[in-house]
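Lecture 7 notes: from sequence to structure.

We start with a single chain of 274 residues. Read the sequence below before looking at the structure.
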Amino acid sequence: MDILHTIFLALLQGITEFLPVSSSAHLILPKDILGWPDQGLAFDVAVHVGTLSAVMLYFRKDIIALTRDWALSLPFVNNVASQSVSIDPNNARLAWGVILATVPAALLGLLGGDFIEAHLRSSLVIACTTIVFGLALLWADKTSQCAKNLTHLTLKAALIIGIAQALALIPGTSRSGITITAALFLGFTREDSARFSFLLSIPIILLSGGYMSLKLIGSAGIDWVAMGVGMVVSGISAYLCIHYFLVAISKMGMLPFVIYRLLLGGALLLMVFV
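Now the structure, written as tokens:
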């Protein structure tokens, strides 16, 4: 890839990774419309590292607190430290919720990832899921009471959101979109729905990035310049996207993103049938 292709695709990945608009739907457009070559596995790994770095940097204080209180919630550690260290039960429960919600997607990816890759990556599937789950997001946003924050998160609610996240393995669904939709249906505020979705992205990106890295072992002809540029550009754009998305949804809600998904899905259907 030349440098312009690299920058454009990294921006596209960084921006769409955390917006409820489906990154997979966007990444097929340059290839199908402009005839660009596939970016390759090495580049995918690089942009995943960039987006992972962005979300971990943005939520670094949360991650430190959640990790600390999760560790203190373990029976052995708790018995040793209980006399000198206090634990925030809300942080511990949230951390356990993130772990539990990761399990369904990890299992489906392990057991059904090859089938999805082989049979569900068509433009028609992506167009349909982009539209259907966009409408589901609108329904959730309009009907949710938006009264709960993450201190109300139960392990049952976390598991429901995790099962929804597993559906995002189907291209076009949008991992952030489906998890935010599920959280809204459960009555959480837009901001906390998005925050939990972003925290959930950390183990999922780690798992998918690690899996792709294993497949990359022994590969030759890696374009290290493209990987470096992709990692930096995707990281910066993802960090800014997280910040401004959290600001925007409190004022605008999800309607602009739903409208965009409907337009994008419609454009993909035109590509398929015209």
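The chain has a mean pLDDT of 88. Keep this in mind for problem set 3.
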